[in-house]
Write a structure and sequence with these properties.
Distance between the termini: 7 Å
Low-confidence stretches: none
Order of helices and strands: HHHHH
Strand content: under 5%
Structural class: mainly alpha
Number of strands: 0
Oligomer: single chain
Number of helices: 5
Largest sheet: none
Mean pLDDT: 90
Radius of gyration: 14 Å
Length: 109
Amino acid sequence: MSHSSIAEAVKVLEELLVGLDEAYWESATIENKDFFYDIISAIHGELSELAKLSVQDHHLDYEPITIEFRTARIKLGKLRKMLDDYVLRSRTASRLEALIGETVFLSSR
């Protein structure tokens, strides 16, 4: 079983942030915006912790660091199942579906 490196994790999480940011601004309800904001905040926290690592460590295997991100992965699974209800634009929904898949794969390796 191969593991994702920290460098790969940073790339995937940054791309996911962009997709979630688009979905946030496209959301029609405050509840959906709050849902996206919670996940976005957790990913920012995870990326902040990863940024503290030395560049020489970026080849090491990635494991989620923050409790908030570990909890947000559950919400990502929920979002993936209910993408059509939470995201109105098809392009954003398909992009998020792929990015969430990469994130789940990243976390499960």
